[in-house]
Specification:
Blueprint lengths: L1 E4 H6 L1 H9 L4 E5 L2 E6 L31 H10 L2
Length: about 80
């Protein structure tokens, strides 16, 4: 992602806005420190943070999931299933 200082961004604002509208976002920095990210309004939202339990009731974990024997594990790797 391209970074522009404030002076360059002001000078090239029209071109940069067109660029962002086409999906090519950019960053504006002040004294080398990134300050803002410019993206198109119709850009997809960043995915939400996944929380513990987000798959509740969608998968089942057996009660003995942590008691798989070594021989069962070896067998799974050997058979590829």
């Amino acid at each position: 992602m391209q970074t522009y200082n404030i002076h360059d961004a002001k000078t090239q604002l029209s071109r940069l806005v067109e660029q962002a509208a086409k999906g090519d976002s950019f960053i504006i920095a002040k004294a080398g420190k990134p300050m803002v990210k410019v993206i198109a309004l119709n850009a997809p939202e960043p995915s939400q943070v996944k929380r513990f339990g987000f798959m509740a009731e969608q998968i089942q974990v057996p009660n003995d999931f942590d008691h798989t024997s070594e021989s069962e594990i070896v067998k799974l790797f050997e058979n590829g299933t």
